[in-house]
Amino acid sequence: MSEVATRADFTRIRYGQLWEDAAVLLEGLQIGPGDICLSVASAGDNALAMLAEGPDRVFALDLNPAQIACLELRVAAHRTLEHGQYLELLGARRSDKREDWYRRCRPALAAEARSFWDARTEVIRSGIGGSGKFEGYFALFRQRILPLIHSRRTVEALLEPRDRAGREIFYREHWDTLRWRWIFRMFFSRRVMGWLGRSAAQFRYVEGRVGDRILERARHALVELEPARNPWLHWILLGEHRETLPPAWELTTFERARERLDRLEWRCKSVEDFLAGSDGSGLSKCNLSDIFEYMSEAHHRSLMEKLLTACRPGARLAYWNMLVPRQAPDGFPVRSLETEAARLHRLDRAFFYSRFVLEEVAG
Question: Are 117 and 16 in contact (CB under 8 A)?
Fold first, then answer.
């Protein structure tokens, strides 16, 4: 059993959408025909983005049955909806027809998933991409906190296209106020984020000032990257994506994933339990999200040993560090692709993470 499962509540939707940049993930993993992939499921977006790359198999795993239900509804929507309807169901586009789209998806769901979503009409009506605790945290920031810092006009101006020099000037002269820094650090502190956004158990191994680290990454997203092309920033500030979509929600990804749904399998279990079964072998590409962050060093080492046993030579592992540094322990048969990972991290539009880790299993 995963260590965090003994301390965190995994009975509600924690993430209604993925807060990891699939563009970074896919470039790092280089998925193609013949690959057997493992992915932490979460809301299902990155597993579907991996599927769209054409591997032989994708196994999506999550401890939380609510997250598996999020993936199952996405799969049903791929089978039954057009792309625009899919975006409306997720909440990326405004709509008063989400219940209609759900009713169209419903026959394609297994009984347990149908029961889960039938009991959540309001969640369907408001858009499933905003249904998680984490999205609720950002909604509180957007609706109650952000107006104390910046006007709507300033927020809209932040999202206008600019070159690097223009973004630097706008950030310095209009955005980076004393109030912005003070309230941001407080709202994204360990205590507030653990209470309202994530789980306190997810901060068990975190040291240092959380708000300062996230503020530094926010500056990177607003200056070094292009806010006008950042779907996660749009959602945080506006509650919708407008014309800027996460990679997994784009039309080409939607269509390619729909053609390959028979290659996707999901399990409501931990990575450890999956690796102990017969399916957990021959893996070649693994998206591990940030699961190592919630583990002690000893548990991290144990899981990495099991994972490497299940992987082919040359397999790639990709995962994020947000606040706890984790990588393959010294002496393990793993080659760090540090230069490539650092380059990709600089491009990561889901800007909360302090590090993107990319490793290759030795041959």
Answer: no
Per-residue exposure over 22-46, b if at least 16 CB sit within 10 Å of its own CB, e if not = bbbbbbbbebeeebbbbbbbbbbbb
On whether the CB atoms of residues 302 and 9 are closer than 8 A, the answer is no
DSSP type of residue 62: -
Residue 40's beta-bridge partner residues?
Answer: 61
**CA 266 to CA 192: how far, in whole Å?**
32
189: DSSP letter: S
Global pTM value: 0.92
* Tokens (6 digits) for 199: 């789980």
Q: Which residues pair with 286 in a beta bridge?
A: 38, 317
- Tell me the pLDDT of the chain averaged across its residues: 92
DSSP per-residue string spanning 215-271: HHHHHIIIIIS-GGG-HHHHHHHHSS-TT---GGGSHHHHHHHHTTGGGEEEESS-H
Pairing of strands 311-321, 283-287: parallel
Strands 283-287 and 36-40: parallel
* Domain limits, the chain: 133-238
Residues composing the chain: 363
Q: Grade residue 193 by pLDDT with cuts at 50, 70 and 90.
A: low
Question: Residue 179: enclosing H or E segment and its boundaries?
Answer: helix 178-187
Token pair recorded at residue 113: 């998933």
Cα separation, 95 vs 109, whole angstroms: 22
pLDDT tens across 302-318, in order? 999 999 999 999 999 99
Say if strands 57-61 and 334-336 run parallel, antiparallel, or are unpaired: unpaired
CA distance readout (Å), 7 to 4, 63, 137, 210, 276: 5, 12, 20, 20, 22
